[in-house]
Design goal:
The complex is a heterodimer. Helix content of chain A is 45%, strand content 10%. By secondary structure, chain A is of the alpha/beta class. In chain A, helix 1 crosses helix 2 and helix 5 runs parallel beside helix 6. At the A-B interface, helix 5 and helix 6 of A face helix 3, helix 4 and helix 5 of B. The site of thiamine diphosphate has 15 residues of chain A, from strand 5.
Chain lengths: 346, 331
């Protein structure tokens, strides 16, 4: 039997309060705005390689906003929208993608950790972080995200099994966007819905229309609530699509048909939510314009902040390897600080 | 100094006592791994701890090494001080991704925000006829990972103090325990809580003829060789490195400068092993003092043999150390 895909927008349902719905929309629009700007900055040589998330805003923002301030996100590399919605300052995110050291230290108050590059490694770590809250008597929940390709890795299975056995308060989001770079889902797994795997681990599995912000948000809220009440982890599969290339170095025309992209473009999660808001009289062109102007202003302000970040110092290479520098780091630090390589300094 | 009361313990008991003290002293300390709870570990290192501290603080995990390391990392991120056991060092390999990609890197990649006070304990090394994959010595692999420390005690007394330091340390520490010493080494161990500094090598025996350098299970082998040599009128210096990372280069170089001859003894495979690092440091820092090439006595470039009849040929013994010594002295 096929699992039911949770959806609201296609049925014209409006299950949220107006303010909540608007909050979702604004956060998604802000994320998209950032994504578009980031692509431009990258083309101008002002960012390094960048992984766009365009098309996946509902999945990422939906989960991030379902969390409380004390909850954590443990993201993968495509989760910039999630990080923004969780409160990571724009300038930190820009500096992160600029590969500037100042962007790699996330602010203390923000309960988000750096994105993970080696795929699936974040999964068991998220479980540990979730349990730590329990030990400390804090009721924080951890949301962690992975792509459909990432679910093939052992760490995904180990992490989910650990979470279920240990009863860890985690929400596992799978952003099933159909591709792992070029490899389609059909070459990745022999199962139709990933959420089916949940039963195998002993946790609830839910499939949502990942381009339906209401569906993601509401199911994520339920999962967070369950976790907070001590009822353990949930696997949330969001069916979605990445409208842009895998990264700025990728060419999707080599592996996926234009018509497919076009079909998904029509299901753009931002347009869908906007339409629902407009039908209720909550949104219009004017409000959109006002929002865009505010975003433009915010972006300019934050971008200016990044330009004030000092040039990285050579000795930063060997900083923060240990809490206190060992003799080998110390020697390299002194050399780099004086403008030498280690061997020249001798 | 007030002399502490001591008793004779083996390495298993000494490590157990350190874990017990750490658990009782700091609520944030957790002990977990495969079979560490109810069974008390396959070597009984964690015996009695679950009974005493409960299943919350001392617990069995599912059988998944990457999961164990990932769990430890997340727990440390959240403010705990996990002490994870990997049942045998040869089973660290499934967790290498977590170690190389994260455990050693988080402090650096978060520019100091996320430090990971994790201790990973694992029995290592041969000499007791274990099955395949149960006698590996992966210290060079671990030592090649920036951001982690590697500590290998050579006696019960050192193990207790070093493990307590490792648990107090703000950085991840691999604590490798020589299986051969678990019940083979017995020594006076002080009662109560004490720590020994990480990153310090020790000169165990003075001598002018040559310097033997090793750690962990090889220390008793070096001492045995030194004793044989002494009877033949050759006094050698014996250095126990104890912490491989960070390496106490000062003590090491000083010891080599004094004798002009150096032999590194380790039971991992020879190529790219930690002995190569020691030899390179000596070449960089004390070449002018050398009267013979730095020699290595090590395992062979092959997996540790699970064949009991010939296993002893792989693991360095006093005879092989003495042969190297002869070579160094007659160079
Ligand atoms: C362990 C590991 N192997 C390979 C890569 C290279 N890589 C980066 S993204 C990616 C595909 C990931 O696909 P998926 O998990 O579906 O996430 P998506 O990119 O679609 O969001 C690969 C193979 C990596 N980062 N880590």
């Amino acid at each position: 039997m096929k699992p039911q895909v949770v959806q609201y927008l296609n049925k014209g349902e409006f299950p949220l309060g107006e303010e909540e719905a608007l909050r979702l929309y604004r956060a998604m629009r802000r994320a998209r705005f950032f994504d578009e700007k980031a692509l431009t900055l990258q083309r101008q040589g002002r960012l390094g390689v960048y992984a766009p998330f365009m098309g996946q805003e509902a999945a990422q923002v939906g989960v991030a906003l379902a969390l409380g301030e004390g909850d954590w996100v443990v993201p993968s590399y495509r989760e910039s929208a999630m990080l923004l919605a969780k409160g990571l300052p724009l300038h930190t995110l820009i500096l992160y993608w600029r590969a500037h050291p100042a962007g790699w230290r996330f602010p203390e108050g923000v309960r988000a950790v750096n994105p993970y590059i080696p795929i699936a490694t974040q999964i068991p770590q998220a479980v540990g972080l979730a349990l730590a809250g329990r030990y400390r008597g804090e009721d924080w929940v951890v949301a962690t995200s992975i792509g459909d390709g990432g679910t093939s890795k052992g760490d995904f299975h180990e992490g989910l099994n650990f979470a279920a056995v240990l009863g860890a308060p985690v929400v596992f989001l799978v952003q099933n966007n159909g591709y792992a770079i070029s490899v389609p889902r059909s070459r990745q797994m022999k199962v139709d819905y990933l959420a089916r795997r949940a039963e195998g681990y002993g946790m609830p599995g839910v499939v949502v229309d990942g381009n339906d912000a209401f569906a993601v948000y509401l199911e994520a809220k339920k999962a967070v609530e369950r976790a907070r009440k001590g009822e353990g982890p949930t696997l949330l599969e969001a069916l979605t699509y990445r409208l842009a290339p895998h990264t700025t170095s990728d060419d999707p025309s080599r592996y996926r048909p234009k018509e497919e992209e076009e079909a998904w473009r029509a299901k753009d999660p931002i347009l869908r939510l906007r339409k629902a808001l407009e039908e209720r009289g909550l949104w219009d062109q004017e409000r959109e314009q006002t929002l865009l102007e505010a975003l433009e202003e915010e972006f300019a302000r934050e971008l200016a902040l990044t330009d004030q970040a000092p040039e990285p110092r050579p000795e930063e290479i060997v900083e923060h390897v240990y809490a206190e520098m060992g003799p080998d780091q110390r020697r390299a630090f002194e050399a780099l600080k004086r403008g030498f390589h280690l061997e020249e300094a001798w | 100094m007030v002399r502490e009361r001591t008793r004779v313990l083996n390495l298993v008991q000494a490590v157990n006592e350190a874990l017990d003290l750490a658990l009782s002293r700091d609520e944030r300390v957790l002990v977990f791994g495969e079979d560490v709870g109810r069974l008390g570990g396959v070597f009984r290192v964690t015996e009695g701890l679950q009974e005493k501290y409960g299943e919350r603080r001392v617990f069995d995990t599912p059988l998944a090494e990457s999961g164990i390391l990932g769990l430890a990392i997340g727990l440390a991120m959240g403010g705990m001080r996990p002490v994870a056991e990997i049942q045998f060092a040869g089973f660290l390999y499934p967790a290498l991704d977590q170690i190389l990609s994260h455990l050693g890197r988080w402090r650096h990649r978060s520019r100091g925000r996320v430090g990971l006070p994790v201790v990973v304990r694992a029995p290592y090394g041969g000499g007791v006829h274990t099955p395949e994959q149960h006698a590996d010595s992966p210290e060079a692999l671990l030592g090649h990972t920036p951001g982690v420390k590697v500590v290998i005690p050579s006696s019960p007394e050192r193990a207790k103090g070093l493990l307590l330091s490792a648990i107090e340390d703000e950085d991840p520490v691999f604590f490798l325990e020589a299986i051969k010493l678990y019940r083979g080494a017995r020594a006076e161990v002080p009662e109560g809580y004490y720590t020994l500094p990480l990153g310090k090598a020790r000169v165990l025996k003075e001598g002018k003829a040559a310097t033997l350098i090793g750690y962990g299970g090889m220390v008793e082998v070096m001492l045995e060789a030194a004793e044989v040599a002494r009877k033949e009128g050759v006094e050698v210096m014996v250095v126990d490195l104890e912490t491989l990372v960070p390496l106490d280069e000062e003590t090491l170089l000083e010891a080599v400068r004094e004798t002009g001859r150096a032999i590194v003894v380790y039971e991992a495979m020879r190529t790219g092993g930690f002995g190569a690092e020691i030899a390179a440091r000596i070449a960089e820092g004390a070449i002018d003092y050398l009267q013979a090439p730095v020699l290595r006595v090590a395992g062979y470039d092959a997996p540790y043999p699970p064949f009991s009849a010939i296993e002893h040929l792989y693991r360095p013994n006093a005879r092989r150390v003495l042969a190297a010594l002869r070579k160094a002295l007659t160079y």
